[in-house]
Each structure stands twice: as structure tokens, then as C-alpha cells.
Write a structure and sequence with these properties.
By secondary structure, the protein is α/β, with parallel strands linked by helices. It is 49% helix and 17% strand. It is built from 15 helices and eleven strands. The strands form three sheets. Strands 1-2-9-6-5-3-4 form a seven-stranded mixed beta sheet, sandwiched between helices. A two-stranded antiparallel sheet has the order 7-8. The radius of gyration is 20 Å and the shape is globular. The structure holds nicotinamide-adenine-dinucleotide and zinc ion.
């Protein structure tokens, strides 16, 4: 899956192959500067590139992207949006679409998303729906974006009643991952992404799990070699899963480890208290305790999973969240989806199982165990 050529000694390529598309994820330090050349090769004669970004990310990385594009003769037009989660709404997509039309964009043009998951999901949905679909590339600048949201073609926005409820599958033409962009991330945003890396390790990569245990300091210090390792391993895992299950029929559901509880926790805390990754971290702790309670995971593995989650950093406590409310939210989600309540539970490090119909008492008990002192270091 990985190729290194003499011309690009530090660029690795991971391929995603789905029924609807086949595209590269390029990973390499300094890639932002090469974007123009690569996009020109991908779409020869590309007339214009509309880059959806946020003011913050644009101020940090727009210039560098622009330099490479200009050198390759690709004119760039930024389209800036507020990237707070509450702006991940249809209204933002509409505003951007009107702006594209005003600037004369048509299906021959290319879009790009430069930013975190919010920008990526909005720009992806814009690309899926503007003139019934235009090509786009993902240039993620957060850890969550680089190892998760930019890969797989899930795009969409939130409704008042819940997250990501309007959307489309629309695969990008390429994903460009420049780990250097992570250097400007706030610590909390970086750690929120690390919890998702831990998730990848638990669901399918025991070597990544050991790497994290043994090199946590380098990872937390964002040292480039450690960063490259964890990015490549998690990107390969995500690419492999998406390749085998583009539309989340079954296999792709393992990616939801920590997310059943996590989504409920995000919802009952009003999507403001916790970063998504932090909610997932709490969710992984709850799911691991649940698996242990049900005798589905060896206690030693459960202990290592919880210890690794906690050593990434102190999780914000869950004040005033009564387990009953979280449980009610879980049940409501189940009703909305019209199916059974599924949990992804660890069997051992590197392997999970999907279980439905678990005893409510056990689920409630693992929620009650989420008292703040346990998470503090
Ligand atoms: N489509 C998918 O498959 C998928 C998967 C996972 C998550 N998501 C979605 O992704 C979103 C979360 O994404 P996220 O975790 O990237 O958060 P985010 O997009 O909210 O970004 C977090 C913060 O970091 C800032 N930022 C981004 N890049 C930066 C950089 N290089 N330097 C400094 N600051 C930077 C942003 O402006 C923002 O304030 C959620 O809406 C979630 O639903 C989608
Ligand atoms: Zn997630």
C-alpha cells in the first residue's frame, strides 16, 4: 500500500478503493507546498480551485497552500466559513453554494476542503450537492481530519435534532495529509484526535497500541517521526475498512467503538462541554467496562485500554450528567434509527465485536461508573 519514490522520498501513498471511486491518501511533511503540482496531475487543465476553509486555518496555512498552487498555475479562490460545530448546518452549505454560483463555478472546477472535520464535512456535502456533484479534494489540518473524517466520503451537516443527519456519500478525488499542519493545533484539539487514534489501535491494530504505550511522550510532543507512524497506521486502517465497506453496512461499524456512548454524552452535554474525541474517550472507557462486566474481554486488556485512554490527558469531567439521562438518550437514538442498540465492545486489544440486545442493567452500571475521579490522573 505504501510507495516511496526517489522524487518524493518522504511521501507515502495509501489507496482507498471503493465501488464508486479509487483515490490516494498522500501523507508527507511539506505536502501542502506540493499541492499544486499534485492537483495539476490529478486534474490536468484544472482552471480554478475553490478552497473552503475557516478564517483561522486560512490565516495559518492558506499562504503556504497558495504558494504551491500558484507555482503550478492553479488559481485559488478561498471561501471562508465559521467552522464552529454549530455552524455545520444546511444554512452554511447554502451560503457557500450561492457564493460559488456568484463566482461562476461550474462542474469543471475543483473544490478543496482545508481545515478540520467541520470544514471537511461541510465542503464535502457542498461538493456532493452543488450542481448535483463536483469533484473535490480533502486537505485536512486536524488529527481527526487526517486519520478519520477526510477519508471515506461521508459528508454532511447537523440538524437541531442530532448530528450528521443530512448528508451524502461523496468520495474525494484525493486526500492530502501534511502532518506539519498539526503543529499549530491547540493541545486540546490534538489530544481529542489522539483518542480516535487509540480507538483505531483497539479495533484493529495491536502494534499501534503498543507503539502508543511505548512512545506516548514523543506522540504527545508531536515529534515528526512518531506522528508519521501513528498517522500512517490509522490511515491504513481506515482506508482498509472503507475499502471493504463503503456504505457502513457492517464492517465499518467497528469504527464506532466508543461512539454509541460518546454520541449520547455529547448530546446530553449540549455538544459544548466535550470535544467529540473526548466524548469518544469516555465512551471507550464505558464500553470497555461494559465488556469487562459481561466477561467479554480479559481484565488485563481492559486495564491497558483504560490506562492508555487516560494517559493521553486528563479528560474533562462529566458534571451533572446523570447516567439515566445518558441511557435515555441511547434509547432515543435507537428508536430514531429504528433498530437495535448496538455496542462495539473490545474482545482483546486489536479486536472488537458488535453486540446488540445487551442487558440494560449492565449498560446502566457501566455509565454509573463514569465518575470523574476515575478519569483524573
Ligand atoms: N465524515 C466523517 O467520517 C467524520 C468522522 C469523524 C468526525 N467527523 C466530524 O468532524 C468534526 C470534528 O472535526 P475536528 O475534530 O477536526 O474538529 P474541528 O473541525 O471542529 O476543528 C477543531 C478546531 O481546530 C481548528 N483548527 C483546524 N485545523 C487547525 C490547525 N492546523 N491549527 C490550528 N487550529 C486548527 C478549527 O478552527 C477548530 O477550532 C465533527 O463535526 C464530526 O462530526 C466526521
Ligand atoms: Zn469519531
Amino acid at each position: 500500500m505504501k510507495s516511496r519514490t526517489k522524487a518524493n522520498p518522504s511521501v507515502a501513498t495509501v489507496w482507498v478503493r471503493t465501488a464508486s471511486a479509487r483515490y490516494p491518501v498522500w501523507v508527507g511533511s511539506g505536502l501542502l507546498r506540493q499541492a499544486g503540482r499534485r492537483l495539476q496531475r490529478l486534474r490536468p487543465g484544472c482552471r480554478r480551485l475553490f478552497v473552503v476553509s475557516s478564517p483561522r486555518v486560512w490565516a495559518l496555512w492558506g499562504k503556504e497552500l497558495g504558494r504551491g498552487l500558484r507555482a503550478a498555475g492553479v488559481p485559488l479562490e478561498p471561501l471562508l466559513m465559521d467552522d464552529r460545530e454549530e455552524k455545520k448546518r444546511l444554512a452554511t452549505v447554502e451560503k457557500l453554494a450561492e457564493e460559488l454560483l456568484r463566482r461562476g463555478a461550474d462542474r469543471g472546477d475543483l473544490l478543496a476542503a482545508l481545515g478540520g472535520g467541520v470544514v471537511g464535512d461541510v465542503a464535502g456535502f457542498l461538493a456532493a450537492s452543488y450542481m448535483r456533484g463536483v469533484d473535490y479534494v480533502q486537505i485536512p489540518t486536524t488529527l481527526v481530519g487526517q486519520m478519520d473524517s477526510a477519508i471515506g466520503g461521508k459528508t454532511g451537516v447537523n440538524l437541531r435534532g442530532g448530528k450528521n443527519l443530512v448528508g451524502a456519500f461523496h468520495q474525494p478525488r484525493a486526500v492530502l495529509v501534511d502532518p506539519r499542519t498539526l503543529n499549530s493545533l491547540r493541545g486540546r484539539d490534538y489530544r481529542a484526535g489522539l483518542y480516535e487514534v487509540v480507538k483505531c489501535a483497539v479495533i484493529g491494530d495491536p502494534a499501534l497500541f503498543r507503539f502508543l504505550e511505548e512512545n506516548l511522550e514523543a506522540v504527545l510532543g508531536r515529534q515528526s517521526a512518531a506522528l508519521a507512524s501513528i498517522l500512517l497506521r490509522s490511515i491504513r486502517l481506515k482506508a482498509r475498512i472503507v475499502t471493504r465497506d463503503e456504505r457502513e453496512q457492517n464492517l465499518r461499524r467497528v469504527l464506532n467503538f466508543g461512539h454509541t456512548f460518546g454520541h449520547a454524552l455529547e448530546a446530553v452535554t449540549g455538544y459544548r462541554r466535550l470535544r467529540h474525541g473526548e466524548a469518544v474517550a469516555w465512551g471507550m472507557i464505558a464500553a470497555t467496562r461494559l465488556a469487562e462486566r459481561l466477561g467479554r474481554v480479559p481484565p488485563a486488556d481492559a486495564g491497558r485500554i483504560i490506562a492508555l485512554v487516560q494517559s493521553v490527558g486528563r479528560l474533562p469531567a462529566l458534571p451533572r450528567v446523570r447516567p439515566e439521562r445518558v441511557y435515555a438518550r441511547l434509547a432515543a437514538d435507537k428508536k430514531r434509527r429504528g433498530g437495535a442498540l448496538h455496542f462495539v465492545l473490545p474482545r482483546r486489544i486489536g479486536r472488537v465485536e458488535i453486540r446488540a440486545g445487551l442487558p440494560p442493567a449492565a449498560v446502566r452500571a457501566s455509565l454509573r461508573e463514569l465518575d470523574p475521579p476515575r478519569a483524573a490522573r
